[in-house]
Amino acid sequence: MIARLAVIGVGLIGGSLARALREAGAVGEVVGCGRSLPNLERARELGVIDRFSQDPAEAVVGADMVFLAVPMRAMRGVLETIAPALAPGAVVTDGGSVKGSVVADAGAVFGAPPPFLVPGHPIAGTERSGVEAAFAELYRDRRVILTPVEQTAPEAVDRVEAMWRACGAEVTRMDVSHHDEVLAATSHLPHMLAFGLVDTLARMRENDEIFRYAAGGFRDFTRIASSSPEMWRDICLANREALSAMLGRFSVELADLARLIREEDGDELLALFARAREARDRYIDGVR
Ligand SMILES: NC(=O)C1=CN([C@@H]2O[C@H](COP(=O)(O)OP(=O)(O)OC[C@H]3O[C@@H](n4cnc5c(N)ncnc54)[C@H](O)[C@@H]3O)[C@@H](O)[C@H]2O)C=CC1
Ligand SMILES: O=C(O)C(=O)Cc1ccc(O)cc1
């Protein structure tokens, strides 16, 4: 289906796509590109890629599909570098967590978002990074959101959709700004809460003792605070408007909660917790 795939950024997301497509027999050759030589050598050793180049322009030569899986802040530079080297008919897509910034980056590089660029986002991942963390099953039964814009060629979108389907994913389409608002709420805000909670506790003087007495709930809630700091700095800055709005909204909720506790309003606390539990149970039943 794909003759030559170029993966720019062979980490968790890029490496897992390469592994999944290989397992599905949906790709001929995989060319990797990244900044860390040991990571690229490891990727070749593991059979995730066939060969690599550290120059993105060289890596995309002759590729019919190009997947960008680099941190958000690196997207624009990569697009700039690969632009003159892309094969005619090549489709470019990405796995970045924010979509408005990718569309803006493409606009800045090409004058307008080009027809062959299909912005995308697999709603699947872990708190781990690098090719060692990549696995073929990551995208199985998970959602991938594509956010084509007016300029995007429908044939390019179809090819990217078929690629993700081959990995076992369910593909949906969404408007760019809606994507960024939804993900600010469901993914970016929870990561901020986990990082913020762990940082607050870590900075308390008696933190050694505090962490010793943390229960399972703390562990469950804070797993995502083990995620890559660079990746999350980039996501926050790339989605600053939607994320700031969500953080503002959540601050109001938190202040409200503090007030109910201070005022010993047990009835309202009970109502809030019951509402939240019901919503979470419905969500869990829905994904089961
Ligand atoms: N980790 C996760 O759970 C998810 C991450 N994403 C998005 O996927 C993208 C990649 O994330 P991961 O695979 O987790 O990160 P990762 O850290 O595992 O891999 C990123 C790779 O990009 C390479 N890289 C960095 N700057 C580069 C540049 N200028 N040129 C070429 N290569 C460069 C690094 O060497 C690294 O191998 C990010 O945009 C992230 O927002 C999307 C969904 C889930
Ligand atoms: O580790 C987890 O549970 C995640 O939520 C991973 C994740 C991180 C970033 C994304 O854009 C999508 C998924």
From TrEMBL:
It catalyses: prephenate + NAD(+) = 3-(4-hydroxyphenyl)pyruvate + CO2 + NADH. PROSITE patterns: PDH_ADH. Its EC number is 1.3.1.12. Belongs to the prephenate/arogenate dehydrogenase family. Pathway: Amino-acid biosynthesis; L-tyrosine biosynthesis; (4-hydroxyphenyl)pyruvate from prephenate (NAD(+) route): step 1/1. This is prephenate dehydrogenase. PANTHER family: PREPHENATE DEHYDROGENASE, PREPHENATE DEHYDROGENASE [NADP(+)]. One of its GO terms (biological process) is tyrosine biosynthetic process. It comes from Marichromatium purpuratum 984. Keywords: Amino-acid biosynthesis, Aromatic amino acid biosynthesis, NAD, Oxidoreductase, Tyrosine biosynthesis. The keyword Signal does not apply. One of its GO terms (molecular function) is prephenate dehydrogenase (NADP+) activity. It is an enzyme of class 1 (oxidoreductase). Residues 3-288 form the Prephenate/arogenate dehydrogenase domain.
